[in-house]
Amino acid sequence: MTHSPSFSMCVYCGSRPGKLEAFGEAAQAVGHWIGSHGGQLIYGGGKSGLMGTVARATREAGGRVVGVIPKALVDRELANELCDELHVVTTMHERKAMMAERSNAFIAIPGGIGTFEELYEIWTWRQLGYHDKPIGILNAHGYYDGMLKFLQQCVGQGFMDEWQMGLIKSGDNHAALLAELVEEAGLAQQSDALRAVI
Questions:
Q1: Between β-strands 135-138 and 168-171, what pairing exists: parallel, antiparallel or unpaired?
Q2: What residues contact 136, with CB distance under 8 A and at least 6 apart?
Q3: C-alpha span between 57 and 53 (Å, rounded)
Q4: Over the stretch 2-42, which tens digit does the pLDDT of each residue have?
Q5: What are phi and psi of 188, to 5 degrees?
Q6: Sign of CA dihedral 98, 75, 59, 169
């Protein structure tokens, strides 16, 4: 692509493929949607698991791919040398900061503890007013059913409010969810507060 991408979507996902084909299909669909809609993928820079799948699908559909990976994980997560931009940083904090700053919106698809940590941090930053960028959870094949139920339990037990739940969007239709996030991102502004925290 020689023109500037119309949006930058940060995808949090696993460096493993998971046990179900449905997870890989979801990653493929998300990457294809980003690329075919003139977007840019911001992700963790690996070529294994769902990370590799979403990056390849984005490129194949004509999108740009920006990977950000800590030096310590270059070998473990198999850094993707085919990224349009591959940033090798020193720490996880630098990784997450660069991903946050470069993105217009965020979506978590199936993954493990790293995916959860990234999702919860960007959600916390939004709750605190550091940014107003949209956040989504793609509940592919019901993967996040248990987590979403637990989060509602947190609300019920008084440790969260419904407005905090309203800061994230979830669904199992990748196209509808991505379109909603991109549409909302058109109204989102990066605040000075986000620059301060990252």
A1: parallel
A2: 105, 106, 107, 108, 168, 169, 170, 171, 177, 178, 180, 181
A3: 6
A4: 468 899 999 999 999 999 999 999 999 999 999 999 999 99
A5: -80, 140
A6: negative
